[in-house]
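Worked example 2:
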Amino acid sequence: MTDTKLKDIINALAHGTSPANIEASEGVTCEEIALIAENHADEICRRRAELEARRSRVQALPVFGIDVSAWQGVIAWNRVKNDRNSGFAMLRAACGQEPDTRFEENYRGARAAGIPVGAYLYSMALGEAEAEAEAELLLSLVKDKELSYPLALDIEEEQQVKLGADKCSAIITAFCGRLEQDERYVCLYSYEDFLLSCVTEDVRRKYDLWVADVGGTPRLSGGMRQYSFSGAVPGISGRVDLDEAYKDYPKIIASMKKR
């Protein structure tokens, strides 16, 4: 077993993921999981305490959710709704300037199942004009849709990394600024290293963060955290990303609409 897989299993156990879900997502047996739980009990307890301490600083009970795109294929949302990870769903609306082929279907399915949704765009922008065009596309795709979770910019492309922090931050500001003109609640998604090295501190402070952090102790805090890339959820074939939300987004976004 690789060190990475072992860390993923320890992290899943610390999060309280059921052995059946770990077995399905990691390709290990229940006996192996039990042995890992026994041999690494102290580490699991320490990790669990760290998570609880972090949660208590923001919100005592996080909401568990998922993020999906066309990669998940057809989703049986009526089955997803019975899982603990059905607290919300972040749906990919587009990749660059191409709409996600299952966004509309996923929106209708999640809403019909009573699952609150937000939307995100995976950015391919290498400049501010492209970022603004992506923002316009996202706004057109979510027009007249009922969203109770944020609109998010997913920025993580290698070509964007090469631009450096100032140019990446300008892209982020152009995209998010356009969404804010439409009075949308905006969230910035990426992995921790990108957020720390390719985004200036003032931009990190300006926008709510949705941080991808699998394993280890988070160095950045935000309103949401993606803690697994390999979750198993009924109704979804294959692996799916798992997330936690530490803010009451439905309440926040509802209050914005009343202004």
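Residues 41-58 form the longest helix (18 residues). Residues 1-58 form one domain.
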